[in-house]
Amino acid sequence: MQRAIGADWRRDFHFVIPVRNPGHWNHPNVLEALRSTLAFLSDDNYTFRFEKATNPVPIQNYLEFGGDSGTRFKADEVVLFSGGLDSLGGAIDELSHGRRVALVSHRSSPKIFNHQKQLVAELRRRFPNRVLHVPVLVTTQEPLQVREHTQRTRSFLYAALACVIARLFGNSRIRFFENGVVSINLPISEQVVGARATRTTHPLVLELFRRFFRAHYGRPIEVDNPFIWKTRADVIQSIVNLGCGELIKYTVSCTRTYEMIKLYTHCGCCSQCLDRRFAVLAANAARHDPDDMYRVELLTGARDRPKDQTMAESYVKTALELREMSELEFFDRFSGQTARLPEGFPSLTADEVGRRVLDLHQRHAWAIGEVLKAGVERHSAELVNRSLPSSSVLMMTVAPSGAPVLSSVGRRADASKTWIEGEEAESDKDQDEPARAAPQAKSGHGAKMRGIGEAIDQLWPNGIPKGLSAKDRNRAVIEWLSNNGYSLPINPERAIQRVLKTRPSQ
Questions:
Q1: Which of 82, 142, 152, 271 could be disulfide-bonded to 42 (CB atoms 3.0-4.6 Å)?
Q2: What is the three-class DSSP state of 280?
Q3: Is 244 within the bounds of a domain?
């Protein structure tokens, strides 16, 4: 069933594009780098044919730099600037170190653009003569009608725009700023999986951007994310510590910009609103993020739509489970999402990447648990009296199905039990037993190693072809294991190599 869903969601695109230099764009290295980048970014299939443009738009008409000041500006860094919390944190971090920064924005809608301009004005006031804003207008108005709203390849557009700006300044680096939990984007809800889950700044996406720009320009262009090992609470705390906390209220994180009005800039229900508000409370920065900006208050607001209830419940449930997962449990559960992460960190070993990813997510999860615990203490009377809306986060996750409210947020979430547990050790004893149960047949270390051997036998019954690279061989084995229900080892490449050493014929 899962394979059918994935196949139905994956689309096939064929583009015919007029360009000034079709020979360059049709070069196999450029075409393959472009295709593979977009394929991983969106889970779609792409083919391209570039043709000679007959009447190309003059190059000087593409970008506006705001008059003479723009042409005289010398940028130390080129930063993607969406107007969200993370991009604001990145801009402040760069400016606080004395750098001159070119902020590149995509003007997707007037609502967002107004917030971007307000933030830029505040940054210029605090850091005079060191901020250049380059907003690029790209619309889907007539004749390009919007037919789907996921915008899965939007970061390719942003990166390409920033790369052009960097080249104009003579720079060889562009920077995204997005916290690691969002970048790595493990599934926190049944609604946000597969191609519906954004990969906009996934570490492997950034590595693929580097490869594409290198193929295109013939020289390295660095694409990095300095916030990859930060949680959103870490980013917010940094903004406050650098004396810019009052700018938080001007940022926009909500994905439902079509619902935005002056009274409510955030819906309070989408995954980004949940993540933002939990992080703000975890960083003790609520004074900079008024709760009346949210249509639905985080912990006690009623969530009328079933999909919003599912999103909130899944988000909290996953966080509470993450808090106490062992390394084995974590990588067994998220093997499909973490298997290719090391490719995005060429300078780190797979073990180093694994440890950092686990630490990042457990810090994020612990912060959510502390926010819930504080919420329980603050609203204990309403919880006992069950006077909060039944669809509020506290009622759905702390006291579901009429479960009694006890004293503190539990360390391990279980969908069949209350997520609040008492001080008594007796309740811990019962809840710990399932965690000690034997793993499923395809999850143990021995089963994983046998699975690798089976994958090799099934994929290459006559032996691994001599011309097959180790990278392509490992990728094929990992894909086979995932498709056949095997959990992946923490370092699958090393495990594959071990199996091969025991097989002289290979």
A1: 152
A2: helix
A3: no
